[in-house]
Amino acid sequence: MSSRKPRSSKAGGILKTNKGSGPSQPASTSKRSSKQQRFDEDNIKQTYHPVDKDYGHIKVDEPPTPFSEMEDGSRPPEDELDANILAAKLQASMNKGPRVLESSSSSDSDDMSEEERQRRRAERKEFERRRKMHYNEGQNIKLAKKLLEEESEDELC
């Protein structure tokens, strides 16, 4: 019951054709040429490639890379590692204890008074408490919803 036309067996384009819309005469050559695209090349050249236009292309004269390879391709003797020297240095570093790097803040802590240390310790504890509260916020919301649901169930019963 639809008003759709039956499909033909040939696959057609989506554009309308002139089959039923006008006279059955073939289109003249003048009409065909008016429908074709035509580029005015002189206009394009004047618009996009004017003679006095500077496109900013700069020629960069870079010096050659200062790298020069060895003539025979081998390493110079001062760059080669001696395994015995390397082992001795490694052994010497193993005998030493670990080094502890002290930051400048540790020297500042020596200069702080006991009151200042107490204040900083209290600030740090307060910060940690608030951080824990913030991270537990989601769990608190879930718990509150659960309690509200239980309360509403108790009231309904």
Automatic annotation (TrEMBL):
Question: InterPro entries in the record, alphabetically?
Answer: PPI-2
Q: Basic and acidic residues composition bias: which ranges?
A: 37-62, 115-129
Where is the region Disordered? 1-140
Taxonomically, the superkingdom here is Eukaryota
A Pfam family annotated for this UniProt entry? IPP-2
GO BP terms:
regulation of signal transduction
From start to end residue, where is composition biased (Polar residues)? 18-31
Q: Which GO terms describe its molecular function?
A: protein phosphatase inhibitor activity
- Signal peptide location: none
Q: Which family does it belong to?
A: Belongs to the protein phosphatase inhibitor 2 family.
- Can you name this protein? (diamondback moth) hypothetical protein
